[in-house]
């Protein structure tokens, strides 16, 4: 769940791909259903690449069938004009659809982390709130806690970018 700036609770989520053929997908699919997600911004897949795995995520499949999922098939170069153009399409899609929203790429950290940071900034989050939210990635994905010796090094590295 993303809560920063003026983003209300239970409105925005970011995570891994619920329709990727991997061990985490069923958990992500369950989260999408339990959170009653109404709109999905799929940063990783094209319509064609996600189609074979949709039956494993019936709730997500229903969202696709109702036109509430946009498949943007984005790369990971945030400075690429194609990335920027697709991000715009995704944000406009969000404006035309109601929440709660789920933003995902494959792992939920790079592309989804960047999009969450943009949304947080647009909603008035402080730099610290944005950094703290992104650092949750390291806790969830790499099991790095705030008390871990690596945590300050990772956090400091993000301050330089």
UniProtKB/TrEMBL annotation:
Coiled-coil region list: none
Superkingdom, natural source: Bacteria
SUPFAM superfamilies, per the entry: (Phosphotyrosine protein) phosphatases II
GO MF, one annotated term: phosphoprotein phosphatase activity
Protein name (Swiss-Prot/TrEMBL): CAZy families CBM50 protein
Natural source organism: uncultured Spirochaeta sp
């Amino acid at each position: 769940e993303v809560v920063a700036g003026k983003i209300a609770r239970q409105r925005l989520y970011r995570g891994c791909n619920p329709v990727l053929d991997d061990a985490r997908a069923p958990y992500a699919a369950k989260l999408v259903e339990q959170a009653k997600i109404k709109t999905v911004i799929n940063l990783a897949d094209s319509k064609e690449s996600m189609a074979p795995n949709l039956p494993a995520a019936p709730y997500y499949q229903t969202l696709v069938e109702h036109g509430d999922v946009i498949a943007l098939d984005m790369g990971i170069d945030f400075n690429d004009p194609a990335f920027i153009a697709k991000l715009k399409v995704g944000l406009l899609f969000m404006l035309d659809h109601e929440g709660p929203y789920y933003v995902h790429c494959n792992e939920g950290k790079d592309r989804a982390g960047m999009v969450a940071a943009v949304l947080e900034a647009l909603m008035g989050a402080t730099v610290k709130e944005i950094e703290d939210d992104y650092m949750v990635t390291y806790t969830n994905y790499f099991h790095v806690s705030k008390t871990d010796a690596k945590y300050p090094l990772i956090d400091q590295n993000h301050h330089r970018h």
